[in-house]
Amino acid sequence: YLTFKGELPKGNEGRIIEMIMVSSTDHSFLAPSIDATRFVASGGVPLQASVAAGIISLGDHHGGAIEQCSKLLQDSVKAGSQAAEIVSDYKKRKQRIPGFGHPWHDRDPRNLTLIQKAKEWNVAGDHIALIESIASELKLPANIDGVISGIISDIGIAWQYGRAFFIIPRAVGLSAHAVEETTRE
Fold first, then answer.
1. Which distant-in-sequence residues (6+ apart) come within 8 Å of 99 by Cβ?
2. Exposure on the CB side of residue 77, measured as CA atoms within 13 A
3. Using CA atoms, how far apart are residues 141 and 18, in angstroms rounded to an integer?
């Protein structure tokens, strides 16, 4: 929290950031960043090179939705936009709303815990409420990116830091994959 806001947390912001970091550390072999890391590690390069390959693979479709969704939420809350108009606008433009849907999960269990704790620790606010409203309007749950977007927005972190909430914890998981690839595979 201090790194992103320049001040110490006043409440449970640090605790919720810790939960976010743990929830994004790793997520199976199906992620492009993990594939890139393991592939490069198999060539016998130093650890930092394999982890860098994984980090470089993070983009708009893998890791970038937190930034996109945070911007949407922060702009929408500031403008007073409602879920129905947001969904309608995206449907008219035939665009996918960032932070919703997942190729493998109908409902990601990490989300339920993050939202529950954000509410319990009094860090959930208008942005989480908007995420839940959009999900209801879409009849599609928010994915982990959407939930993280709502939480970081509610604790006052600028949308431009969105990808950091994926890059930082994923570096830990990528390091483990690189070591495993070089020592066991």
1. 65, 66, 68, 69, 72, 131, 142, 143, 145, 146, 147, 149
2. 19
3. 23
How far apart are the C-alpha atoms of 137 and 135, rounded to whole Å? 5
Q: For the whole model, what pTM was predicted?
A: 0.92
Q: In this predicted model, what pLDDT tens digit does every residue of 60-96 receive, in sequence order?
A: 888 889 999 999 999 999 999 999 999 999 999 999 9
pLDDT digit string, tens, across residues 5-39: 999 999 999 999 999 999 998 867 778 999 999 99
Amino acid symbol at 149:
S
- Give the ranges where the chain is alpha helix by DSSP (H): 2-5, 13-23, 32-41, 47-56, 65-79, 83-92, 109-120, 126-138, 144-154, 164-184
Distance between CA atoms of 140 and 130, rounded to whole angstroms?
14
| Cα 86 to Cα 153: distance, rounded to the nearest angstrom | 17
